[in-house]
Specification:
Order of helices and strands: HHEHHEHEHEH
Strand order of the largest sheet: 1-2-4-3
Largest sheet: 4 strands, antiparallel
Structural class: alpha+beta
CATH topology: NADH Oxidase
Radius of gyration: 18 Å
Strand content: 5-15%
Bound molecules: flavin mononucleotide
Number of strands: 4
Length: 217
Amino acid sequence: MDLETAIRTRRSIRKFTTAPVIDETIRELLDVARWAPSWANTQCWSVHVLGGAALERLRAAYRDAVEHKAERRFDVPPHRPDWPAPMRARTQRLLAARAAATEVAPVTPPPFPADLFAAPRMVLFAVDERLQAEYACFDAGLLVQSFCLAAHARGLGTCIMAMAVAYADVLRELVPQARGQRFVVGVAVGVPDEQAPVNGFPRERAGLDEIATFTTA
Ligand SMILES: Cc1cc2nc3c(=O)[nH]c(=O)nc-3n(C[C@H](O)[C@H](O)[C@H](O)COP(=O)(O)O)c2cc1C
């Protein structure tokens, strides 16, 4: 798959087949993605891969957190609810398109996906907490997109999930190696269920004139 096709056709996958994904495959994807650029080559990121019983423990802990209405604690502040109108509208259209395809009435905000879309692997991306969060997260984003494109090029599906790190304290208990790090996102990885409507609804992007200006004189 050429790069442009990969960029244009990658989409978030929220239903996976039961086919396993082995650690060696994730290693290969990360081996590609680690060539992403970063601020002064700091490479301030760490990656924690969960699967098998460890991932089931995370799901159980998240179900428990939801059941007990535990407060969500992100390491990186999530957006405040007062989004600018154009952005709110784009999200509403996304939720409406998803609801129409899956024939499930849209709920705002969507229910917390404690099952993490039942993906066979969850890849957590974190950054060193001693660095300024903004550019560290920017760097992590470059790593994450490279990872997702590499996965897509090999026929794997991904979904970047802020919700996967919504209970950062719960996560740090299960992943003690992440001490001193901020969780940025988790990425669900698996083989896409190509028949699932949730993986096939039409996506939209703002037109170029909405997002770009060109000044030459
Ligand atoms: C930082 C970030 C956080 C996201 N968090 C979630 C999430 O928690 N749950 C989810 O279903 N999708 C999540 N997404 C996926 C976006 O909804 C998705 O990228 C967007 O709707 C565009 O759709 P596409 O990826 O299919 O092109 C996230 C994406 C990004 C970049």
